[in-house]
Write a structure and sequence with these properties.
InterPro entries: LysR-type_TF_proteobact-type, LysR_HTH_N, LysR_subst-bd, WH-like_DNA-bd_sf, WH_DNA-bd_sf
Radius of gyration: 23 Å
Keywords: DNA-binding, Transcription, Transcription regulation
CATH class of the largest domain: Alpha Beta
Order of helices and strands: HHHEEHEHEEEHEEEEHEHEEH
Largest sheet: 11 strands, mixed
CATH superfamily of the largest domain: Periplasmic binding protein-like II
Domain HTH lysR-type: 1-59
Number of domains: 3
Distance between the termini: 53 Å
Family: Belongs to the LysR transcriptional regulatory family.
GO molecular function, one term: DNA-binding transcription factor activity
Number of strands: 13
CATH architecture of the largest domain: 3-Layer(aba) Sandwich
Length: 299
């Protein structure tokens, strides 16, 4: 039995939630993946997975073994990557997670260039605004608009995410334009529900930091939907400048509270804290940083 191959199959079944998904990723059959895991269970003399027609779950022993497998395979991949980085171009599958809007607006346009620059790398891009467990989901690098909170991860700063408060001209014709943050309490504020303090907007003016509670009839975990509601005149929102710049220039949106600076969120590239960072990860992060530096909207 190829124990390492069986361990990799077992880990991907757990991470992807099914034998069929792991089989599709490895370009093989579900039966082949199932046989690998069964052979691993036979060698260990323990049941690793509980399987029913509807769901797949780890046994208590399987959960412990899975964590150990992830560590062992990560160490092996690091050792191989270290050797390859000295003799070859970066290669392999790069699994990247990013927020939906950032992935669509910034990452999608540069992926063709990146893949042309590094033809031996394949990219699996996962767009999701929800929190992702990098280890459990097998993610190499995640792009996040927040401070690093997990000591097992490393953060590489990409840019400070500048925010602006915007509304449509139609909304401002019907409602008095706020002149200071406190007046936001009189407006329908559309909030992004993935932030820790979703109903608090933060501003700076001079040496003063201002935090304002806002309320509204709608909140959402997707920036595209919030943007569309603002364009349709449903209310006021605080959004990244790179997301709304074209609409401001076209006149579809107007900036509100121009004299107040919305406190930016840091955008970071997050990856597991290993002794050696795979070359494909380093190349991807450096490529992102270069492209962001070339774009004035991300300054």
């Amino acid at each position: 039995m190829d124990q390492l191959g069986a361990m990799r199959a077992f880990v991907r079944v757990v991470q992807m939630g099914s034998f069929s998904a792991a089989a599709r990723e490895q370009d093989t059959t579900q039966a082949t993946i199932s046989k690998k895991v069964a052979a691993l269970e036979k060698k260990l003399g323990a049941k690793l997975l509980s399987r029913t027609s509807r769901e797949l779950s780890l046994t208590e022993v399987g959960a412990d073994y899975y964590e150990n497998c992830v560590i062992i395979l990560s160490e092996l991949d690091e050792a191989e990557a270290q050797v390859r980085s000295q003799i070859a171009l970066p290669s392999g599958l790069l699994r990247v997670a990013a927020p939906v809007v950032f992935g669509r607006q910034f990452m999608a346009p540069i992926l063709v260039e990146f893949l042309n620059a590094y033809p031996e790398i394949k990219v699996d891009l996962m767009l999701n605004d929800k929190h992702i467990d990098l280890i459990a989901d097998g993610v190499d690098v995640a792009i996040r608009a927040k401070q690093l909170e997990d000591s097992t991860l490393v953060a590489r700063h990409l840019f400070n995410n500048p925010l602006v408060v915007v509304a449509s001209p139609e909304y401002l014709q019907k409602n008095t334009k706020p002149q200071n943050p406190d007046e936001l309490k009189n407006h329908n504020c559309i909030v992004y529900s993935m932030l820790k303090s979703i109903n608090i907007w933060h501003f700076e003016k001079g040496n003063n930091n201002i935090s304002v509670p806002v309320t509204g009839s709608f909140r959402c975990d997707n920036g595209d939907v919030i943007l569309q509601l603002v364009l349709d005149g449903a209310g006021i929102a605080q959004l990244p400048v790179w997301m709304v710049d074209e609409h401001i220039r076209s006149g579809k949106l107007a900036m509100v509270l121009e004299g107040y600076i919305s406190k930016p969120l840091p955008f970071n590239a997050i990856y597991p804290q290993n002794r050696y960072v795979p070359l494909k990860v380093r190349c991807f992060i450096e490529y992102l940083k270069q492209k962001l530096a070339d774009n004035p909207l991300y300054q």
